Amino acid sequence: MADSSGMPSGFDYEFVMELDDEYACPICHLAMRMPVLTKCGHRFCKECLEEANKSRQNCPLDQEELGPQHVFEDKATERKILSLKVKCPNKGCEWQGELRSAKSHVDECPLTIIPCSYGTFGCDFKDQRKSLIEHVIVTHLAFTVEKLTELLQENEHLKKEIQKVNRDYADIAAQLSSMNTMAQEGNRLRQRLSYTWKVNDFGQQLQNAKNQNRHVRLYCDPFCTHKNGYRLIIELHPNGNGEGLGTHVSVYLIIMRGEYDAILTWPFPHKIKFMLLDQKPDQAQRKNVDFTCISHTGNQDFFKRPSNDYNSGIGCPCFISHEDLTKESYVIDGKIFLRLELKQAS
């Protein structure tokens, strides 16, 4: 009987009535499985034709060119083939029935040869389904008792382990409470080191820059990482800058001079991550775009304490291409959401 995991082929059953040639695949010479009809009037098994056309897309019978658009499912022929009567392939079984029911019968036939259910434990015995129960009882009863004994011993060991865990519970609960307090403090810190910029007129600014072939810069309002923290501003180029000019959106972070710079750590110690947020309603389907850059990696001038009003910007000239910008829901009603996340660099 044909195995769908092997070479593509039709149904390898013995038919009650001799199989009509019109239902036989010209390639595998078996009853067609999922028959298809070509534009030149020939029928094949779907997988047989696909296999034959891997090297060249021509009809195997008359060599006429065959593209995917020239091959059609033949449901009428499939229904006729599946209605043909076949015999059970197991010797000694008198079952006869429609081809569509053959696999279900074989899966339940007492005469089907199947492997022992203890195969995962090294038993390679195979026999008819009706005989396998006796084999399991006779051969594997002692094995089952041995495994059950091992499970009982393991269960006793687990009980002792659970008792130990219960004894340590009070200490663990105290540690967990302390960790929760630290986590809450960490969450507050992360909230202070995250900034989301809603750019309402991004779509119009990008279109204007493209139509007028000019360089457009957009800036968010200056903000601080936290109270008495670093003063920052985001610079956005809808039509790109540098190597991204005309093809990409560019984004940069600029460190500005702030009134608390004298008591802050320099150079700027945070890892910088830009993220363009996907605005799909289903959060599971969102595909945000992000870019990360780290301080102390040869860009000291960008991260040093500003001596002027602001430093040069650090970021990505090719943050996202204009082509990719349209593939997901990054721009809705002309607006985008750009998030900056800062994390202490290791």
Textual characterization of the structure:
Residues 192-342 form the MATH domain. It is found in: Cytoplasm. The protein is built from eight helices and 16 strands. With 346 residues, it is of the alpha+beta class.
Beta fraction: 15-25%
Describe the main β-sheet briefly: 5 strands, antiparallel
- Helix content, binned percent: 25-40%
- Gyration radius from CA atoms, angstroms: 35 Å
Shape descriptor reads flat
Query: How far apart, in Å, are the first and last alpha carbons?
Result: 62 Å
Name the poorly predicted regions: 1-5
Query: Which structural class best describes the helix and strand composition?
Result: alpha+beta
| Helix and strand element order | EEHEHEEHEEHHEHEEEEEEHEHE
InterPro entries: MATH/TRAF_dom, TNF_rcpt-assoc_TRAF_met, TRAF-like, TRAF1-6_MATH_dom, Znf_RING, Znf_RING/FYVE/PHD, Znf_RING_CS, Znf_TRAF
Keywords: Coiled coil, Cytoplasm, Metal-binding, Repeat, Zinc, Zinc-finger
Pfam families: TRAF-mep_MATH (PF21355), zf-C3HC4_2 (PF13923), zf-TRAF (PF02176)
Subcellular location: Cytoplasm
Features:
single chain, 346 residues, alpha+beta, 5-stranded antiparallel sheet, 4-stranded antiparallel sheet, 22% strand, disordered N terminus
